[in-house]
Design brief:
Belongs to the HAPLN family. This protein is an alpha+beta fold and 354 residues long. The chain contains six helices and 23 strands. The protein has three domains: 106 residues, Immunoglobulins (Immunoglobulin-like); 97 residues, Mannose-Binding Protein A, subunit A (Mannose-Binding Protein A, Chain A, Roll), CATH 3.10.100; 96 residues, Mannose-Binding Protein A, subunit A (Mannose-Binding Protein A, Chain A, Roll).
Length: 354
């Protein structure tokens, strides 16, 4: 019986194909129909808004295309959140969950967790938001061989401001620009943040670094030194430059702060060192450039008195333009970088809340 079966199989294998179908034997395409439900990941909002120090939920839910259930039950669901870098060249791990296992990464540790309001809810809650949290996040859900993703942008309420150091215009490479912003209670701005600032009226002729490594500047009032009178208003792009060798200014971004910004009432004007000590004596620190811009833009702070700041510059914030105090526009007025040992001014202080 076994021998007979073997001969039958050999006969089938050696059988000549029908002449009319010989050309089809090598071109036959086999379609495999998957009967299982296809995994879908959906973000109910493409953008969410918050501010430094706040909490936010990045929405993400997963479904199967042909069922109303969250999962098939055959495989464990794995949820992974990553942050996309501004140049999209890599992803930064934020949070991973599978079953009862949870893990957060980097400066997200202790600040992120899943909302899990339902069995198909993969939304991420971020607490105590910091400036570096701004950006685009990817929610990836994996079940067995199936996976899908969704992207959510986290925007922060804040202000973009141009910055150059005491050395003057165009003296920062990209890495120095990043540190300069951090030193002034801010981070280097993204293109989206600069673009939104331009739409709100920011006009600045000096080119500055952005977080993606490009160099750009915003123009609302075309004029000769800034591309010419016939230039179309917009954010002008110098392109991407060598981060180590090329030198420009920088655009920084800051948000609200957990503290009090104020002008210190003092009986006399002060040198820079005296200003630093006066703030310390008052239980505070000399304020940073990012803090004066945040107080001006977000709190409407208005003061006509020029005062020292931590970087050695002297500035004052005007929210209500008036004679002798920025009559034409609301702005943080820049006096300059005076001689620290001999010039006398007031001082702006910042006292952090515990």
């Amino acid at each position: 019986m076994k021998s007979l079966l073997f001969l039958v199989l050999i006969s089938v294998c050696w059988a000549e194909p029908h002449p009319d179908n010989s050309s089809l034997e090598h071109e036959r395409i086999i379609h495999i129909q998957e009967n299982g439900p296809r995994l879908l990941v959906v973000a109910e909002q493409a953008k969410v808004f918050s501010h430094r120090g706040g909490n936010v939920t990045l929405p993400c839910k997963f479904y199967h295309e042909h069922t109303s259930t969250a999962g098939s039950g055959t495989h464990k669901i794995r949820v992974k959140w990553t942050k996309l870098t501004s140049d999209y060249l890599k992803e930064v791990d934020v949070f991973v969950a599978m079953g009862h296992h949870r893990k957060s990464y980097g400066n997200y540790q202790g600040r992120v967790f899943l909302r899990e309001s339902s069995e198909n809810d993969a939304s991420l809650i971020i607490t105590n938001i910091i400036l570096e949290d701004y950006g685009r996040y990817k929610c990836e859900v994996i079940e067995g061989l199936e996976d899908d993703t969704a992207v959510v942008a986290l925007n922060l309420e804040g202000v973009v401001f141009p910055y150059s150091p005491r050395l003057g215009r165009y003296n920062l490479n990209f890495h120095e620009a990043q540190r300069a912003c951090l030193d002034q209670d801010s981070v280097i701005a993204s293109f989206d943040q600069l673009y939104n600032a331009w739409r709100s009226g920011l006009d600045w002729c000096n080119a500055g670094w952005l977080s993606d490594g490009s160099v750009q500047y915003p123009i609302t009032k075309p004029r000769e030194p800034c591309g010419g009178k016939n230039t179309v208003p917009g954010v002008r792009n110098y392109g991407f430059w060598d981060k180590d060798k090329s030198r420009y200014d920088v655009f920084c971004f800051t948000s609200n702060f957990n503290g009090r910004f104020y002008y210190l009432i003092h009986p006399t004007k002060l040198t820079y060192d005296e200003a630093v000590q006066a703030c310390l004596k008052d239980g505070a620190q000399i304020a940073k450039v990012g803090q004066i811009f945040a107080a001006w833009k977000l709190l409407g702070y208005d003061r006509c008195d020029a005062g020292w700041l931590a970087d050695g510059s002297v500035r004052y914030p005007i929210s209500r333009p008036r004679k002798r105090c920025s009559p034409n526009e609301a702005a943080v007025r820049f006096v300059g970088f005076p001689d620290k040992k001999h010039k006398l001014y007031g001082v702006y202080c910042f006292r952090a809340y515990n």
